[in-house]
Amino acid sequence: MPPPFAVQRFLPLPTLSYGHEDLHTGAPGERDFGDHVDQTNYSVVVDERVVVKWLTPPAPLPHPAPEILAHLVEAGFNDTAPPYAALTGVVDGRECLLALVTGYLPEARDGWEWCVDEAERGATGFATDLGRLAAGLHLALATLPAPPGVVAGMETAATEADRARAALAEALELTGGADGAWLAARAGAMRRELAALETAPATSPLIRIHGDLHVGQILRWRNGYAVIDFDGNPTVADAAPYQPAARDVAQLTTSLDHVAQVAIKRRSTPPGEAAAWARRARATLLTAYRRRLAEAGRAGLLDESLLRPFEVEQECRELIYAARHLPRWRYAPMGVLRTWYPEENTA
C-alpha cells in the first residue's frame, strides 16, 4: 500500500479473483446497501462477499474499531461480521481511519427490523440468543488489557453520578413543549434513581465495552446473529472506553423498550401488549446473560446495582440525541419513560 495509506489486516480476505474457466470478466461487482438503510457512513458490498465501510468523514486515530476487531479475532469471538482489514491514511496532516473491510452476511437485517417483527408477534425466544451473544462479547473484551492509568474498579462514584445528573439536566433543557413539562414533573423520581450511582461500589470491574450496544447493532442473518459497529457512541464525546459491563447491558435492555415503542407507532401494537413484551424480553435477555457469565466463571462482570441508573441515564441520552440529531425519535424515549413513570408515581 503506497504512502500515505496503510492497511491493518485482521483475517485473510477471501479471494475475489476468477478462474480462467469462469464466465465473469473484469472487476468484481459492487453495490451500495440502498436508500432504505440508515447509515452514518457509506458502505459498499463487493461481490456479495465483502463490505467496505467508508467513514464519512474520516475518523482521527486512535479509533476504537481496529483495536477491538483485532482483539476479537485473537480471542476467538466469531459472532460478528468477519473483520478483514482497516485502511488508514493521512488527512489534513492527521492520521485517520478511512475504511473498514468486513465480511458480507447474507440475508442480514438489523434489529430495528427483525426485532420489531418479534415485538409485533409477541415472541421473546430471540432474547436468549441476544443475552448469550452480549455475554460472549463481554467475556472476550474483558481479556483486552487496559492501558496504564485505567484502574481495576469503576470510576469514582461522584464522577459517574455527576455525568448522569448532567445528562438529565441537558435532557430537561432540550425537551420542550408538553413532553418537556411531563419530564420536568418526573425529574425528581429520575434523580432518585440516578442517585444510586453515588453509592455504587468502587469494585465494579472495568472492561472494554462496545459503547453503543443496541438492537440496531445486532444483525440477524442466514446463520444466526452478529454484533457489529465497534465505532463507539458518536453522541457521547467524553465516553471512556473502559466502563462497567452494565453500561452496555443497560443500553441493550432499553433498546428493547424502544423496539416496543416502534411497534406501537409503526405496527399499531397495543401499548399494553408492547410493554408486556418488552418486560418479558428484557427478563429473558438478562437471565441468559447472567447464565453465560456464570458458565465462564465470570458472574462478577455484571454489577446489578448499576443497571437501573444506567438505564435512566440512557433514556436521558436518547432525548439529547433526538433533540440534537433526530427530532422524530423523541417519541421512543418519551414512550419508555411514560411506561416507567406512570401518572400515579410522580411524587
From TrEMBL:
Enzyme class, broadest EC rank: transferase
Motif (Substrate specificity determinant motif) on chain: 314-329
Record GO terms (molecular function): ATP binding; glucosamine kinase activity; magnesium ion binding
Cofactor, free-text remark: Binds 2 Mg(2+) ions per subunit.
Residues annotated as binding Mg(2+) 2: 229, 231
Name recorded for this polypeptide: Glucosamine kinase
Record function comment: Catalyzes the ATP-dependent phosphorylation of D-glucosamine (GlcN) to D-glucosamine 6-phosphate. May be involved in the phosphorylation of acquired extracellular GlcN derived from the hydrolysis of chitosan, i.e., in the incorporation of exogenous GlcN into the bacterial GlcNAc metabolism.
Key words of the record: ATP-binding, Carbohydrate metabolism, Kinase, Magnesium, Metal-binding, Nucleotide-binding, Transferase
Family to which the UniProt record says this protein belongs: Belongs to the actinobacterial glucosamine kinase family.
Residues engaged in binding ATP: 53, 103-105, 110
Documented EC number(s): 2.7.1.8
Subunit structure, as described in the record: Monomer.
